[in-house]
Amino acid sequence: MAPKLATLLIFLAVIYLAQTTNSTTIKPSSSFIKSSCATATYPALCEQSLSPFAKTIQTSRAQLARTALAVSLKQSQTTQAYLNKLKQVKGLKPRERSAIGDCLEEVSDSLDRVSKSIKELKNCDRVKGQEFIWHMSNVQTWVSSALTDENTCMDGFGGKVMEGRVKSSVRAHITSVAHVTSNALALVNNFAQKH
C-alpha cells in the first residue's frame, strides 16, 4: 500500500510542477498584455483579442502594436467580405444598397491604411531618433484615419427611414472593427511614447 501511495504522490508532484512551469512561462506575456491593454479604449476586448498571440508578443511593445494592427486588419477584411455579400442581397432598398456601397468604400480605405501601417511599423525596428518619429507619425496618422473611415461608414444610414435589420447588422460589424482599431491606435501610441 505504501509504495502505491508514494508513487501516486510523486506522480501528483510531477503534474503540479509541470503545470506550475507551464503557467510561469505564459504568465509574463499574459500579464504584459493585460497591463498594456489597460490603457486601451476597450481593455477587455483588447486582452481577449491579443491573448491568443501571447507567445508571439512576449513582452515586446512593438510586437504588441503589430499584432493589434493585424487583428484590426483581419476584422476589416471580414467586414469587407460581409458588406460585399450584403450588397448582393435581393430586396434591399435603393438607399440601403447605396449606404452599403459607401460603407464598403470607407472600409476598403480603412483596410488599405491599416495595411500600410503594418508595413510602416516594420520600418520602425531598423531606425532611431528622428527617423523613428517620422515612421511612427505615419503609422499613427494612418491608423487614426482608418478609425475615422470606419466611423464615417454609418453616416449613410442616418434617419428613421434607414432603421432596421440591415442598419443594425452593418453597425455591429463596423463597431467591432472600430473597437479593435481604436485599441490598436492606443497600443501604437503607447509604443511610440515608450520607445
From TrEMBL:
Q: Does the keyword Nucleus apply?
A: no
What single Pfam family name could you report for this chain, choosing any that match?
PMEI
Tell me, what is an example of a GO biological process annotation in this record?
plant-type cell wall modification
Fetch the Gene3D superfamilies from UniProt: Invertase/pectin methylesterase inhibitor family protein
Q: What is its EC number?
A: 3.1.1.11
GO CC term, one of those recorded: plant-type cell wall
Entry's InterPro entries? Answer: Invertase/methylesterase_inhib, Pectinesterase_inhib_dom, PME_Inhibitor
Uppermost EC category: hydrolase
Q: Which GO terms describe its molecular function?
A: enzyme inhibitor activity; pectinesterase activity; pectinesterase inhibitor activity
Signal sequence annotation: 1-20
UniProt xrefs under SMART domains:
PMEI
Q: Pectinesterase inhibitor domain: which residues?
A: 28-187
Q: Which UniProt keywords apply?
A: Hydrolase, Signal
Asked if Iron-sulfur is a keyword of the record, the answer is no
Protein name per Swiss-Prot or TrEMBL:
Pectinesterase
Protein source organism: Helianthus annuus
Q: What does UniProt list as this organism's lineage?
A: Eukaryota, Viridiplantae, Streptophyta, Embryophyta, Tracheophyta
